[in-house]
Design brief:
Helix content: 40-55%
Number of strands: 17
Distance between the termini: 8 Å
CATH class of the largest domain: Alpha Beta
Oligomer: single chain
Largest sheet: 6 strands, parallel
Number of domains: 2
C-alpha cells in the first residue's frame, strides 16, 4: 500500500489532528500504520535526541515500537538553513529520509507521513513538501481551514507545486468549518475543487472543545512562573479576560473557565478575581499577574489558600494579552478527550474508504 502524505495550505490547519484521527481509524481496522514527520520545524529534546513535537505525540499516544528518530529524522535546528545555503548538498538529507522510510516499510503495512506547512515549505534547503512526497512515492491529502475563497486559492497554489513534482494529490480535507455555515461551505468548496481537478475527501466541522487549553500549557509555552495552584494547572480555559477595568466591571466578565490577566499590583482586581473564581464549584480558571509584580504580602496567602492556579509574567499586560490572541496549542498525549474526539471527527466526516482504495491503486 502506498504511503499517505498529509500536507496543508498553512500552519495550524489541522494536519496533526487529521493524522491522529487517521492513525486511530487505521489501527482500529487492523492495519498498524507507521508514522513519520520527515522534516520537523518545532522540536523538543526527547530520549536524548531532537524530535519534532508531533513525532513525540504520536510515539507516546500510540506506543509505537519504532525508535523516536524514525518518527522525526530531520529536525530544523537553529542555523540549519544558513548552513545548507552555504553548502547546498541535499543528498545526505534525502538519504536520511529514504533510510527511515525503508525501516518503517519493513515494520508497518502502511505509513502516514506528515508534512510541514504548505507545499513549498522546506524549499530553502531542498526538501519542500512536494519534493519529500515525491521522494517517498507517497500520495497526498491536503488539509486546509474552513472557508471558501481563501482555501481554494491556497489549494490551487499547493496543487501547482505538487503537480510540478508529479505527485498524486488524492484530494482535500476541509477542516474547522463553522457549524452554522457547514452545508453551504462544504457544497461550495466541493464544486470549487472540481474546477481545480481535485476533490473533497472530508469536511470536518469546527469543534470548540479542541481549541481549549490549560493553565499549565500557558505556563509551559511562555515560561511563566507558577506562583501557586500547581495542582490545578490542568484547569481548562474557555475565556480570557484582561482585568484592566474598575473592579465593579470585573464581575461582568469572570465566569467558569476564565483566565484573568491583570497587573500584579492591582490589589483590587486580584481580590475580586479570587472571590469570583473561588465561587465556582470546581475552582475552574486561573490568573496571570503581569509586569513582574509579586502580589502584596497580605494577598499572597489568600491566593495560595484559594487553590487557583496563578502565573507570574515579567512582561506587561499588553504583551501578555497579545500573546493570547489566536493562540493554538499542540495536542499533548495527556489530552485523551481531544484524541478521542479527533477519532470521532475523522471517522464521521472523512471518507477513509475512498482514501484507502486510492492508496491501493
Amino acid at each position: 500500500m502506498k504511503p499517505i502524505y498529509i500536507g496543508a495550505t498553512l500552519r495550524d490547519c489541522g494536519k496533526t489532528s487529521v493524522s491522529v484521527g487517521m492513525m486511530q481509524i487505521l489501527r482500529q481496522r487492523g492495519l498498524e500504520p507507521g508514522y513519520c514527520k520527515p522534516v520537523g520545524q518545532h522540536y523538543v529534546r526527547y530520549q536524548d535526541k531532537n524530535i519534532d513535537e508531533d513525532g513525540v505525540l504520536m510515539h507516546q499516544v500510540f506506543h509505537l515500537p519504532d525508535e523516536p528518530y524514525y518518527l522525526s529524522p530531520i529536525a530544523i535546528e537553529r542555523g540549519f538553513t544558513r548552513k545548507f545555503i552555504e553548502n547546498p548538498d541535499v543528498k545526505p538529507l534525502e538519504k536520511q529520509i529514504l533510510d527511515v522510510d525503508a525501516q518503517l516499510r519493513a515494520a508497518h503495512p502502511m505509513i502516514i507521513y506528515e508534512g510541514t506547512g504548505h507545499a513549498g515549505v522546506g524549499s530553502c534547503f531542498g526538501l519542500s513538501n512536494a519534493r519529500v512526497a515525491q521522494l517517498l512515492g507517497a500520495k497526498v491529502v491536503i488539509v486546509t481551514a474552513g472557508g471558501i475563497g481563501r482555501p481554494i486559492d491556497e489549494i490551487a497554489l499547493s496543487l501547482s507545486l505538487f503537480r510540478d513534482y508529479d505527485v498524486d494529490v488524492l484530494g482535500v480535507i476541509l477542516n474547522k468549518i463553522l457549524i452554522d455555515k457547514y452545508d453551504s461551505v462544504r457544497q461550495a468548496v466541493s464544486k470549487g475543487l472540481s474546477l481545480l481537478d481535485t476533490r473533497l475527501l472530508g469536511a470536518i466541522p469546527y469543534d470548540p472543545g479542541l481549541a481549549e487549553f490549560t493553565v499549565g500549557q500557558v505556563a509551559e509555552e511562555f515560561s511563566y512562573r507558577v506562583l501557586c495552584g500547581s495542582d490545578a494547572l490542568n484547569n481548562r480555559i474557555h475565556h480570557t479576560v484582561i482585568a484592566a477595568m474598575e473592579p465593579q466591571h470585573v464581575f461582568e466578565h469572570v465566569v467558569d473557565h476564565t483566565l484573568v490577566i491583570m497587573p500584579g499590583d492591582r490589589v483590587d482586581n486580584i481580590l475580586i478575581s479570587i472571590l469570583l473564581l473561588s465561587k465556582q464549584a470546581e475552582r475552574t480558571g486561573g490568573m496571570i499577574l503581569s509586569g513582574g509584580f509579586e502580589p502584596h504580602p497580605t494577598i499572597e496567602p489568600l491566593l495560595r489558600a484559594s487553590q487557583i492556579p496563578v502565573l507570574i509574567s515579567e512582561d506587561d499586560t499588553f504583551t501578555v494579552s497579545a500573546r493570547m490572541k489566536d493562540l493554538g496549542f499542540k495536542i499533548r498525549s495527556y489530552d485523551t478527550d481531544k484524541i478521542t474526539r479527533l477519532h470521532q471527527l475523522v471517522d464521521e466526516y472523512v471518507d477513509m474508504d475512498q482514501i484507502l482504495k486510492a492508496l491501493e491503486d
